[in-house]
Amino acid sequence: MKFRDWFSLKGIRKEIKNVSWLSKKELAQNSAIVLLFCFVMGLYFFAGDAIIAFILKTLGMN
Questions:
Q1: Which candidate, 58, 47, 16, places its Cα nearest to that of 8?
Q2: CA torsion, points 21, 26, 32, 34, in degrees to nearest 10?
Q3: pLDDT of residue 25
Q4: Could you tell me the residue range of the domain that residue 53 belongs to?
Q5: CB of 30 closer than 8 Å to CB of 22
Q6: pLDDT tens, 9-49?
Q7: Looking at the 3D structure of the chain, how many domains does it have?
């Protein structure tokens, strides 16, 4: 397939048919995993920041 053919509507339609789309269930599961991961990482960074702030406050550097 030539480069020019790939950027035609026919080529774009052909490529879209090759895409494997997620089902609604898979999309919901993956979205939940991402949101959970973001929440856990947010707690991790919040706790780390709080601990460092506590240490600096205890040492009188804050």
A1: 16
A2: -50
A3: 97
A4: 3-59
A5: yes
A6: 888 888 888 999 899 999 999 999 999 999 999 999 999 99
A7: 1
